[in-house]
Amino acid sequence: MINHIWGLLSNPGREWRNIDREKESITNLYARHVLLMALIPVVSAFIGTTQIGWHLGGEAYKVAVPTAAALGIVFYILMLIGVAIMGNVIHWMSDSFASRPSRSRCIIFAGYVATPLFIAGIALLYPKAWLLLIVGIIALAYSARLLYVGMPAFLRIPVNEGLTISGGTLAIGVLVLELLLALTVALWGLGFNDYAVSWSLFR
């Protein structure tokens, strides 16, 4: 797994070919990559929100540990589901092409494309809006690069066709990301309220 991470970041074209030769299954993808990588933003968010707190409007709002743990489980599950959803989106968008890859292959592709976004979750150790925005944009841009390079190298979709799918997939991915961010704000808002209630009870 670690070799794939470094390879995707340093030389994505070659690494996609290496991944292709492994012929792994969705089960192996999740067991060796997604389940572990998705822990990065979850653990980082748990530490950042309980020890440092969200920085909103100059103030830091900490979340109670039980609430942060519950939210962490929810977002962990959402990320695992999100990979499968994006894989299915890629499979659906490739429907009109003769070289259409299998659904399994598309989900595996989506799992590795999400690698920069998982790594970017480290920024949640210091959950400040401007930092998360900058890191998120950089991670999204690199995921777009992995998407574009991986289309011909892993999915066997020609570059000209891959550009169309890459653009569409990225657009849908951004919408999904925005939805998750909205959910994050809403649920963490509940976390703030929970913290405020807990604090008022012990004052």
Automatic annotation (TrEMBL):
Chief location category: membrane
A UniProt-annotated Pfam family: Yip1
Highest rank taxon of the organism: Bacteria
Keyword set, alphabetical order: Membrane, Transmembrane, Transmembrane helix
Cellular location(s): Membrane
InterPro entries for this protein: Yip1_dom
UniProt membrane topology term: Multi-pass membrane protein
One Gene Ontology cellular component annotation held by this UniProt entry: membrane
Protein's recorded name: Yip1 domain-containing protein
Organism: Pseudomonas fulva (strain 12-X)
